[in-house]
Write a structure and sequence with these properties.
Two copies of one chain form a homodimer. With 412 residues, chain A is α/β, with parallel strands linked by helices. Chain A has 16 helices and 14 strands.
Chain lengths: 412, 412
Amino acid sequence: MSYVSGFRCTICETIYKKDAITTYTCPSCGEKGILDVLYDYKSIGEVLTRDSLKANSDTSIWRYLPLLPVEDTYLSDTLKVGGTPLYKSKGLAEVLGTRHLYIKDEGLNPTASLKDRASVIAVIKALEAGISTICCSSTGNAASSLAGNAARMGLKTFIFVPERAPIGKLTQLLIYDATVVSVAGDYKATFDLSKAAIDHFGWYNRNAAINPYLVEGKKTVALEIAEQLDFKLTDWVAVSVGDGCTIGGVYKGFYDLLQLGLIKKIPRILGVQASGCAPLYKAFRTNGPVEAAEENTLADSISVGVPRNPVKALEAVKKSGGNYVSVSDESILEAMSLLGKTEGIFGEPAGVASLAGIQVAIQEGVIKKDESVTFIMTGNGLKDIKNGQLAAKEPIHMNSNVDEMIRILSQK
Amino acid sequence: MSYVSGFRCTICETIYKKDAITTYTCPSCGEKGILDVLYDYKSIGEVLTRDSLKANSDTSIWRYLPLLPVEDTYLSDTLKVGGTPLYKSKGLAEVLGTRHLYIKDEGLNPTASLKDRASVIAVIKALEAGISTICCSSTGNAASSLAGNAARMGLKTFIFVPERAPIGKLTQLLIYDATVVSVAGDYKATFDLSKAAIDHFGWYNRNAAINPYLVEGKKTVALEIAEQLDFKLTDWVAVSVGDGCTIGGVYKGFYDLLQLGLIKKIPRILGVQASGCAPLYKAFRTNGPVEAAEENTLADSISVGVPRNPVKALEAVKKSGGNYVSVSDESILEAMSLLGKTEGIFGEPAGVASLAGIQVAIQEGVIKKDESVTFIMTGNGLKDIKNGQLAAKEPIHMNSNVDEMIRILSQK
C-alpha cells in the first residue's frame, strides 16, 4: 500500500485520504459509490521503470507491486498469477484480415481465468485485515479463482453461485474445498444473498463490484500486454464485459502506464457483450441510462443483467475513444471453433466473445482493416465443456479394421 | 540439432551417427528398438551455463535449446510451452509430514498438460521434415496437446483415441480441429490402428513410444524443476507412469544436467502406477518381465496395459536408486481433493496419482520422513470433470431467503 495515496468516489468524485476509508465504498454515496484507488505516480515512477522491469525475473503480477494496493508480506506464498502468454497471430489474423492481431491467453492462469488477478489481491487484503473467511457471489470464474487462491493461503471461502453455473466451474471450486451455496435465482438474487451473508458474518467481501482493490488486480493484464508489446500498443484492445469490473481494470492499467509516461496513449477499448444480455452496450450506443437486461446467453461469465460497475465500464470505453458491440451466441460458438482451429487456443464462451466482437466491429467499420488489435481471451474452454461440445465437430467412430480405416480416412 | 551427436538403441545398445537414422527406431531391432538421443555435452556446456540461463528472459522450453533436438527456425511461432510454476508446499507438506515438498503444476501448459512439452517438439520435427500432417494415438492428453500445438503452426492432425477417453479431452482436440478417430477397443488396439494409418498415409508419427524426440521434450520438466530449485534438487521426484515415456524424460533431463555438471546427483525417481493397471510396478518389484496388464483405473492417462517404453521407464527408476509404488483409485480421488484443499491446485487423476504415490511410499518406508520430495502434477483437473465430481463434496442448495441462509450457514 506504500504508493496508494487515497480513493476517489466514481459517483460524487470526492477524494478521500488513504486512512479515511474503512469500508469498501464511498461513505457518502453508499453501496453504489464504488471507489477508485489513487496512487502517488511520481514516487512509483522512480522505482518502476523499463529498466527495473527488465531486471526483474519475477514473471507473476507481483512484478508490478508498486502499482498494487498490497504489502509484500504474503506475496511469496501465493499461486503464480499472471505471466500469461501474448501471441502474435498468423492464422487468425489472416482470416480476419487485420494487420496485426495479438491474443492474450488468460486461460493459463492458475485456476484458468483472468479472475485470478483479482482474487489473489482479495486474498492478500483479507490476510492483511486479519480476516480468515472470504465470500463472493459469482457466475463461476471469480468463485473458482477465489476458492483456489484462498485454499493455497489457508483461508476459508463461502461462494454463492446461481444455479446455472457450468459444472466445470462448480466442480473446480468444490475441489478447492469452498463451501458452495447454489442459489435458485439469477445473478442479482445470488449477489444480494451473498451481501446479506457478508453483513451478518463479517466475512471479507470479494465481490468485484463493491471491493475497490479487485480492479487493481485485473489491471495487471493491461500492464502485461503493454510490456509484452514493448509498450508499443495496438490501436484497439478488445474484452468481453459482464459486471464491468474487468474492462474497468483494463482501462486502469493503461491509465497507470500513461501517468508513468511508459505509454503515450491509451488504446481504444472495445467492450463486447452478448446480444442476449447487453445492458452496457445499449446504454453506450443510446447514450442512455443502464437498464436491467435479461440474462439470455450461453456465455455465463458475462451474463449479468444488472452490471454492478457501470460507471467504470462505460468510462473505460468512452475515455479511450473506443466502442461497444454485441454478439450473438452463434457467433460466440463460431469464434470458439475458429480460435481453436487457427491458433490452438481453447477459450470459454465469454473468453472468445471478444473475438466475435472484433469480427462485428470490423463489419460495422468500427475497427478499420489497417488497425491493429489485441484481444483478451479471459477464460479456459475446459471450464465449460458443454458449450465446447456445441462448437466442436464430431469424432469418427470405427472398429479396429485396417482396410475400413484406410477407406474412410482416404476421404478426409 | 546442432548438438545432437547420434543415437543409441535402448535394446541392442548400438550407437548410430546422427545421419544414419532415417526412421524412428533402431534399424536392427525394429519397432521395439527405441532410440535414445545423444548429445555433445562438451560443446553444450560452453553455451548453456547457470549464467547464460540467468541472462535468458525466455521462460518457455526453448531456453534449453542447446539440449533439444530441433533447429531454431520455427520456435518463435509456437505456443508457449513450459515455464510452469514450482510451488513450495505449506499446507500439503504439513498433512504428509514431509520436510520439504514441491509441486510442479504442469496443468498450466497451453493445452493443460505436460504432454505439450513433447507435442511441440513433434510439430517442429514434422515441419523440419516438410510433412504437413501428424498422427498419434493417445488416451487423451498427448492427442489434445498435439492437436493444439499443430493448429497453432498450421499443421493437420489425425488422432486415434480409445472410446473411453474423457469428454473434456475429446472436446478440446475437436475444438483444435483435429480429425478424431474413436476406436472401439483398448489402448493397444488404438495404437496399432494409428500405426497402420501412419504407414499407409506417410504422416509424421507423434507416438511417444516410437519417436525418439518426444522424450527430449518431456525432459524439459526436469530441467525446469532443477533450475527453479537453483540446482539443489529434492531427494525424490515423483511422477505417474503409463507408457513410460514421461518418466524416461524426467530421468533424461536430470541425466543431461549431470553430464553438464549442473547437478551432482540424479534424485531418486518414484514411479507411480494405478493398482488397476500396474505392469511396470509389478515388473520392477518382482524383477521380472513386463507382462500385459488389464486397464482398470479411472486415471485414464496412465491406463496403459502394454507400456511401449518399458526399458526407459524401468531404467529411470533403477538407475536413480528410486522405486515403484501402486495406488488405488480411491487414494487417487482422495489425493485430488487433498491437493485442491491444501494448495489450490486442481489435478486430473493421473496428475495427482504421484501425490497418492508419495503417501504410499511414506507408509511403506520407501520415502523417509526427513527426505524432501518434488511431485509432478502432470495434467489439469478441468480435463476430467467427471472424476473431479467423484472427488468433490456437494454444494448446498437454497432459495434466496436470508433468514434461512443465515440459519444454515451458521452451522458450517
